[in-house]
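Limitations

Structures in this collection are predictions, not experimental determinations, and the ligand pose is part of the prediction. Treat each record accordingly. The example that follows, with hydroxy diiron-OXO moiety as the small molecule, is included so readers can see exactly what is and is not provided: the inputs are given verbatim, and the output is the predicted complex.
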Amino acid sequence: MNKSIEKLLNDQVKYEATASMQYLSMASWADAKGYNGIAEFFYAQSEEERVHMTKLVKFINERSGTVIVPALDKPKADFKSLSELFETFLSSEVFVTEKINHIIFECLQKKDYNVHNFMQWYVTEQLEEEAVARTLLDKLNIIGNDKSGHYLFDRDINTIATEADAPE
Ligand code: OFO
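Predicted complex:
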């Protein structure tokens, strides 16, 4: 595998791992505040990102590359509001999407169609996850500071997320 592509895939391992730990931290924050639905949502997101990371690790190994399991920065652990929690979610997803697009771009430059093909799965995932993050944040913006709205949001988060994720 081209060394610069291998480096980008290893960087992506770190970004997926970082997202996984960030979402675990967000799940724990929500859990401690009594938002059980939001906590379960982020526990599941954290697991998903871990799966994304492991898929990359396996792929690099399959292609006889060298995997570098990265050290991670401490995730953000405190949030002023639910809006800040979900803004963090959206900005994390937008960041990951940019990185994936960059890998796709480099694959085309280096004519590595194998990695390009593999990365299409991530492109689709990111589209879905960004749509979910934007929808949830939009709902929270409508709710504002209304406590009973927050209660219903926490109760219904999985339904809202599933609807946002559904193909048009
Ligand atoms: Fe890894 O799917 Fe989002 O970040």
